[in-house]
Amino acid sequence: MTVGIPRAGMYYRCGVLWENFLRSLGEDYVVSGETNKAILEKGSALMADESCLSSKIYMGHVDSLLDRCDCLFVPWLSNFGADGINCTRFRAYHAMISNIYRERAPKLLTYAIDYSGTQDMKHAGDEETAFMSMAKALGRSKKEIRDAYRAAKQISEEDFARRVAQAEAVADGEGTKILIVGHDYSIYDAYIGRPIIKAFQNFGMKLIDANLVDRRQAQRDFRKLSDGTLPWTVSRELLGGVVRYRDRVDGIVLLTGFPCGPDSLVNEVIKREVDDKPILYLLQDGQDGLAGVETRIESFTDILTYHGNGER
Ligand code: SF4
To answer: Which residues 6+ apart lie within 8 Å of 206 measured at CB?
Structure first.
């Protein structure tokens, strides 16, 4: 059985865990290719117009995998802890896929995380418990699943810690530095985020991803910028990232895929609370690469450079 993993959404947070879990079990799996115009157009055609850019990209990746795998890996991720929730999209992709492809009825491999115990989802629980629920679908013993999960979890945590250490080193290093605040599936997406990162780098800027923070600390720190009622875990982490890095960067870029409800709130908080740094707001609507934003990126880097030189 070949498992298909969409290179979108939570893949950018959990992909190392997922791939190492399947690899450790010796399962065949395939990850969809990098996002391109065709993937975005397909996803846009499948999803309602008002859906966010990221979910259109997600569905485009799902579609690209249908002929390449026996089942799609689509976890149901309500939250990552008892305090905080995920965007509803990560609880909805199952139903969306089943609805969009009701004739074809693709097989889904899934696990359901819910630390709060409040969601009505079969077999939902903490992450390890959730992984165990895949034993039957994968034809494995509970022990095999537990061992594979624990080994993969350790690798993914070490990988994340290494990336956080790299971000900290950039923040402590020389150069003009920009904190980029956005979902990792936007920042690292080859079609919507990476061209922007590359453009800044071509101007000599050092980029720091606000997602790369100690997540537990960020869950406490986000209250320094907001009243503590923000429900979304990832949004809290992004605000925690702003608290962590704001004094060590020269400017902040807010990267948002249109139309994202959580981001609209988070961006507003940052614009109101961080009044000592230049902020550039980039709203991506799925246009080709850098279309329409090159001039704004160049102007912003000019501002940061003049500030850094003590010029006004
Ligand atoms: S958080 Fe925003 S960008 Fe992400 S899936 Fe939800 S609406 Fe879309």
So the answer is: 170, 173, 175, 176, 177, 178
